[in-house]
TrEMBL record:
This is histidine kinase. The chain holds residues 555 to 814 of 814 of the full protein. It comes from Mesobacillus jeotgali. Residues 41-256 form the Histidine kinase domain. It is found in: Cell membrane.
Length: 260
């Protein structure tokens, strides 16, 4: 993005020429865009659970409620407070990771065990989708922080579910290739428009398409995944057919040694 300043050069009344100054303002433009995306995401995503918490606490304060109603409202308030906590943790995580202040407790891990744990947990939350795991062979040891790798995988599997219709299948495929543990997370959901692929891992970026406008989110999930995977010497890539589904592939170096 360029800003152009233009000024005429005169000697008395005689025009000698015109000076054009081009200033590259791509960076300022980008910072402004990220700021406004941040403000609109924060206000929307924080206000929704807060409105619900305020509404239900008011109901509880103003009425004589039966115990089962009280329990129902309290459980909604609890869930919404949990949502707020997750959001704030995501903001803090991305900030820590981007400034290089994230500390990792790395040791040798069997990735398959971590993936199985994440899938089991996701199954509890989303009975409406079919989750499967396939291991095609090879080594699955990596050096990493179990909690952070779980967080990355949870974000990817959660997205696969969130952007797929009910009853959709989500498959995780694991194999070793060229000294790397490859983990593919495949879904048959909404897919990603080709023009969005380049920006998908940017923080606060969300695909603005009519097919997903009602699905909430901050645009931080994939940015966090990318930071975690890069901090483990790994890569992440995505292939998608818009309207048909997506496959996210993580690749992490295989570890043979028992020492970090
Ligand atoms: P969020 O889900 O909070 O918007 P993410 O960073 O996790 O943020 O994802 C960024 C965008 O990428 C989402 O808004 C969504 O449109 C798109 N996306 C991510 N994963 C998938 C997927 N599995 N299928 C389709 N679209 C996806």
């Amino acid at each position: 993005v360029f800003k152009v300043y233009c000024e005429g050069l005169f000697d008395g009344n005689t025009k000698l020429g015109t000076i054009f100054v081009h200033r590259n303002i791509t960076k300022e433009f980008e910072v402004d865009r990220i700021k406004s995306e941040f403000v609109s995401t924060v206000s929307h995503e924080l206000r929704t659970p807060l409105a619900s918490i305020l509404g239900f606490t008011e109901l509880m304060l103003n009425r004589e409620l039966k115990l089962d109603r009280q329990k129902k409202y309290l459980s909604t308030i609890h869930n919404e407070a949990g949502r707020l906590t997750d959001l704030i943790n995501d903001f803090l995580d991305i900030q820590r990771m981007e400034s290089g202040k994230q500390e990792y407790e790395k040791k040798q891990l069997a990735m398959l065990l971590i993936i199985k744990k994440v899938i089991e947990l996701q199954k509890v939350h989303s009975e409406s989708h079919e989750l499967s795991l396939e291991f095609l062979g090879g080594r699955d040891f990596v050096i990493g922080d179990a909690g952070k790798l779980e967080q990355a995988l949870t974000n990817l599997i959660h997205n696969a579910i969130k952007y797929s219709p009910e009853g959709g299948r989500v498959g995780v495929v694991v194999f070793e290739k060229d000294g790397r543990v490859k983990i593919e997370i495949q879904d048959e959901g909404l897919g990603i428009p080709p023009e969005a692929l380049d920006r998908l891992f940017e923080k606060f970026y969300r695909v603005d398409n009519s097919d997903r406008r009602s699905i909430g989110g901050t645009g931080l999930g994939l940015a966090i995944v990318k930071e975690i995977i890069h901090d483990h010497g790994g890569d992440i890539s995505v292939k998608s057919q818009f309207g048909k589904g997506s496959t996210f592939t993580i690749s992490l170096p295989v570890s043979d040694s028992q020492t970090v």
